[in-house]
Request: fold
Amino acid sequence: MPSIRKAQKTRGGSRLKAPGKDAQGSRLKAEGKSINLEPSASNLEQYNQPSALIITIDGPAGAGKSTVAKRLAQRMGLTYLDTGATYRALAYAAVKAGLNTTTDIASLSRLARHLPLRLRPTSHGGVQVLLGGVDITREIRTEEVSEAAAQVSQHPPVRAAMVALQRQLANHHGVVVEGRDTGSVVFPHAKHKFFLKADAAIRARRRQEELAQLYGRRPPLTQVRAQLHFRDSLDQTRRVGPLVKPVGATVIDTSHRSVTQVVQLMLRRIRAR
Ligand code: DC
Reply:
């Protein structure tokens, strides 16, 4: 598989730009199809059956959502769904296809609607991300894909397609789902909603550690902080599915709490309802 960077070099135009800054026009023809920007009501009903236990965990990057969500899902015997991984997989596919992640909105939406994505649970509670049967679990964690994911997730028609996909990926019998809009848009009727937050400096250190673990290199903290800050602002200001505390969500500050402490807090809250 060619590296994502190679795809960018040969086709160009895929690097992240601040919204509205990329003046290049779309290089692929728009399809002229109208796309419903709202998640479909029937789809929403199907995945919000009263019997399905749905627990949503939202929050900014580095708040600890993934670690906590995986642990909670294991403890409760539920499926774990990482919606960020779905945007990352789309971003990876888009860059590989040479799409401009800022401007090629029609093509990005079409890709999102037909994304051959599978999330396969691993024995240790994680998830293997398969795109067209190819394992891209590690590839989607680079800073490059993080930036492209932040960009593709800005486009309302792309989000509509991804929300539909996320509902399909959720298990009818119960799921712990984490992301930015899972309690507000993807599963607004979820029984339990949490919103995790943490100090910016702590979130940056966690992300730096994650990158060091993945790639054996520790990027400068100032760089990681700047990237997080940029992604935070994109997450908070987009028109559709912005990062918000969902109505009724329990807020947990994870800055000075261990994973075990956060999960225990959640379990207590869940049992109390
Ligand atoms: O959680 P993460 O860093 O893996 O998410 C990757 C990107 O996807 C991030 O820029 C925010 C976006 N995202 C989103 O817009 N909505 C979600 N529900 C989850 C992630």
Observations:
- Residues 163 and 186 are 6 Å apart (CA to CA).
- The first strand starts at residue 54 and ends at 58.
- Residues 61, 83-84, 87-88, 149-150, 153, 179-182, 231, 235, 241 surround 2'-deoxycytidine-5'-monophosphate (CB under 6 Å).
